[in-house]
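Deliverable D5.2: sample structural annotation.
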Amino acid sequence: MGKALFLEKQSTAGMLGTLGYLLAMGAALLPQFRYAGFIITGTAWILLGISERQKVLVLAGSLLTADGLVSYISRCFLLGTSLLVCFIVLGVVAKGFEMYAHFKASTIYGISWFWWSGVARILVLILLAAFSAILAFIIVQAQAPSIDEALRKADPALYHTAATLLVAGGIAELIASLLSVVAFSSLGFSKKK
């Protein structure tokens, strides 16, 4: 009975994780897909955490779910800058725990796709940190009242470097999500370590 319940939770988490990451990748088509993807993916991580008694997986799932809900709310309602910064911090913390959860799941289930997705997520964080640093430099240097105006005043080389880092980060995120889709869809075939 216990083994059957475990396999059912693992199978459900696999389907939810696969669907969630596919939806998150569909954000290019419709932004709401991303929010729904975060919420569904978060639920999958929570299920895995409960079935494995791994608090870090439950925490990662909870943070992803909260990030999806808060991101949707902040997009629907214009919020103050300080509240927006809090939401950005929540997103970064959620992504950090999501990355760690991939490595933990790789260890638990012996699925290397989780590990590779974690590595791709490290690359995403590095690229987006570099993009953020260059963007902050452009904004400070331009002393403009808005980001749009700062970008118009930016040195073309800095602007193109920032744009290249942003595109590379987007491609790395897409690859990481594809790897997560494969990892979650492999859950039914894993031999738990």
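Annotation notes: Residues 2-189 form one domain. The chain has a mean pLDDT of 82.
The annotation will be released with the project's public dataset once the embargo ends.
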